[in-house]
Amino acid sequence: MRGQGRPPERDGKIMSPAESPDPASTNDLRITGFQPLIPPGELRAALPLDVESARLVRESRQAVRGVLSGEDDRLLLVVGPCSVHDPVAAHEYAQRLSEAIAPLRDDLCVVMRVYFEKPRTKLGWKGLINDPDMDGTHDVQRGLRMARTVLLDVLATGLPVACEFLEPTSPQYIADTVTWGAIGARTPESQVHRQLASGLSMPVGFKNATDGDVQPAIDGCYTAAGSHVFFGIDDEGRGSIVSTAGNPDCHIVLRGGRGGPNYRSEDVRDALGLLDKAEMPRRLVIDASHDNSGKDHIRQAAVVREIAEQVARGESGIAGLMMESFLAEGRQQPGPRETLTYGQSVTDACIGWPETERLLGELAAAVRSRREAVRTAA
Ligand SMILES: O=C[C@H](O)[C@H](O)COP(=O)(O)O
Ligand SMILES: C=C(OP(=O)(O)O)C(=O)O
């Protein structure tokens, strides 16, 4: 590690070269700290998935697979806050959503967005796991515990959950609770994330890249379907060589790009054409948020309605839809929890609850119309 002898210590912690420069050292010169992380198996044992929730995860993964393959003619709906920053508000949202979708289950296969890892365009709050107190103290151990507690709590309301996976080792701590995973728009081309997806136990959506290019997402699905060998950690937290079997349940997600949106029927047709060329199933998910709505929650609701119209007209390539929704509409700057508006996003602007409820009903109606359109055409 360092030049000669024992590395210097302060308060029982090994000091990094950045804290105690050693002119002879060539290593870790810009690392300012290492803190041991709880082993994944230990966190899972401390906050276990109960039998009922494990059944929910298994069955909902199977349901999502059915919708993605087209065997199940419902619409997959991944809906919830852009990010979770307040476990209490996340719980209230989950309870409301769980009640609201009960009568719509024949038409919608709903998974709640419970996102803890936020990829940033430049700088910004990186989510509850990375900085649970939103104040730069980065208590990651606490963040992991809080995240897992929220996941178990949402499952207890009867709702399956969706997460984006960003840190390559974080799934070891939480993925057993997750029904649908996302590889976000900043990472579909990343080999690390493609390898990661190849070992995940749930269906995974690869987003198109931030420039709007859909091909990296298609290549991501293809790559993740294969087996891989890469660096990771095991349940004890030991650095490991990880081997995976490959994930056959990957699909693309259209989320718009710098050049504009890609949710319209001509964009869907183009994307399905690319899937044909890649000899992949003609099924995709559309995210109504992000560059499909310019991160404007009012526009997002209009985009959801335009996608619902395509579904109602019989577009069978649209397997699912993503929507960012929370209790209060809009967004606010992250900050100390007690200063924030309850139930409002601290990342992207979200559709508020009353509009969300209306959209759920409209989407279910669109699915019923699609069923009818398909029957009539047959
Ligand atoms: O979904 C959330 C955001 O779109 C994503 O984290 C990027 O946010 P940023 O562009 O504000 O950094
Ligand atoms: C970051 C997200 O989306 P995207 O990767 O499409 O920007 C998200 O859904 O939280």
TrEMBL record:
Protein name: Phospho-2-dehydro-3-deoxyheptonate aldolase
Function statement: Stereospecific condensation of phosphoenolpyruvate (PEP) and D-erythrose-4-phosphate (E4P) giving rise to 3-deoxy-D-arabino-heptulosonate-7-phosphate (DAHP).
Positions of region (Disordered): 1-29
InterPro entries the UniProt entry points to: Aldolase_TIM, DAHP1/KDSA, DAHP_synth_1
DAHP synthetase I/KDSA domain location: 66-359
PANTHER family: PHOSPHO-2-DEHYDRO-3-DEOXYHEPTONATE ALDOLASE DAHP SYNTHETASE, PHOSPHO-2-DEHYDRO-3-DEOXYHEPTONATE ALDOLASE, TYROSINE-INHIBITED
Organism of derivation: Rugosimonospora acidiphila
Pathway the protein acts in: Metabolic intermediate biosynthesis; chorismate biosynthesis; chorismate from D-erythrose 4-phosphate and phosphoenolpyruvate: step 1/7
Family per similarity comment: Belongs to the class-I DAHP synthase family.
EC id: 2.5.1.54
Reaction equation(s) it catalyzes: D-erythrose 4-phosphate + phosphoenolpyruvate + H2O = 7-phospho-2-dehydro-3-deoxy-D-arabino-heptonate + phosphate
Keyword S-adenosyl-L-methionine carried by entry: no
Lineage: superkingdom: Bacteria
Keywords: Amino-acid biosynthesis, Aromatic amino acid biosynthesis, Transferase
